[in-house]
Amino acid sequence: MYVLSGSNVHGQWPCAELFISKFQDITLEGYNSSFKLKEAQLLCPNWSYNIFIFKDTFYLAGAWCGSDSALIEVKLPDQLKCYKHTSLILTGNDLKLYLINKISYDIWLLNIEDVATWNWQYKKINTSEDIFTNEQESPCKKPKTKTVIVKAVPTPYSFILLTSDGSIYDALTKIDTSHCIGRVCDVDYGYEHGILLTDKGHIYTWGNGKRCQLGHGDLITLEEPTELEALSGIRVIKIKTGGWHSLALSESGDLYAWGWNDTGQLGIRRGDEKKEGLNSYPVPTLVELYDDEENVIETNVKDIACGSRHSAIVLEDNTVWTTGINKYGQLGFDPEEIAKLDSFKKSFVCEFDASLQCGHWSTCVLSKDVVQKRIKIESFGWEVGQ
Q1: Over the stretch 208-228, which tens digit does the pLDDT of each residue have?
Q2: Cα separation of 151 and 160, whole Å?
Q3: Which domains are seen in the chain, by residue range?
Q4: Which parts of 261-361 are beta strand (E)?
């Protein structure tokens, strides 16, 4: 089940509205008779398109080949016909699609303008030298390593890879994580910064910090993942990044936020006066929730998600709370009535065990069975972030 609010201007979802200003169940069967949304898995939401998998086939939904509301079946390279879709990852950004073989470390790139011709470009990660090579081996050949790629995160210009042994690749190069405490089990990336999580609950960030998004109390750029000292004594179980902000969820159900807060995307209120928050927070800050009567909400947070400049969370009672910019209705409220929120406000009450996934300008509430199926597809039997 998918419940959506926010932008649909390119027809990424089979829904007539361009702007979905209140959460609604996307119940239509799909874009055509053969595609059924209720059975499809959302793999990657983007600004102008979504990536789905349905019955062992990848689909692109949205703006393609000069038209909106298009549904296109992805044509795989001939070399991948011997593989099941569960051993492949498809992700992308506004420039390229990235098709990744989890087992053999083969990667195919496709420029967005080449979707009509499906002119895939082949690359390969050479794990011994930690760089891509153009030498193509048989993709069906048994891999020399027991490790597999378990997650691919698109960045504005490339992608980040996570392997089952905790290695991180930033497109062409391997990132040094030997100093990290524990094995890296999850990774996410915003517009200019990355964040990773280890199985010991430690968080590390790297990249551009000019909007405080690294959480180290300064504006410097870091080439190497560096531990967030403010959270070093707290076991974190989930991480998410927005455009220039990040969220972290502790094992006790507490929410921490840091980075740019120009539209209230952190949901942090300043002091006891409950005033509008600061424009940015340079270190992770505990976020408190309040109801409409200004009473503190004691219910724990169980899931988190970030859009470009908004954030969403789910509490253990399956209520959804949102904050930040609401230009396209991504917070679940009419944008003509609420242009933005400076703190989290309850926007939806679920009747099912809920989880979250945000696009750049949208918020999607997923049922638990959808999430578990997606994890199985994406992680090749190895669950990330746990």
Answers
A1: 999 999 999 999 999 999 999
A2: 8
A3: 176-349 (2.130.10.30)
A4: 280-286, 301-306, 310-315, 319-325, 340-349, 354-359
Please name which of 270, 196, 207, 208 lies closest in space to residue 236, comparing C-alpha atoms. Answer: 196
Say whether pLDDT at 376 is over 60.
Answer: no
How do residues 363-373 score in pLDDT, each as one tens digit?
999 986 654 44
Give whichever of 144-153, 204-213, 276-285 has the largest mean pLDDT. Answer: 204-213
Q: How many CA atoms lie within 13 Å of 87's alpha carbon, on the beta-carbon side?
A: 15
Instruction: Give the angle subtended at the CA of 383 by the CAs of 378 and 386, to the nearest 5°.
Output: 140
What is the pTM for the complete model shown?
0.90
Q: Is residue 244 pLDDT above 80, yes or no? A: yes
Residue 207: both structure tokens together: 């990249």
pLDDT at 257: 98
pLDDT at residue 381, rounded to an integer: 41
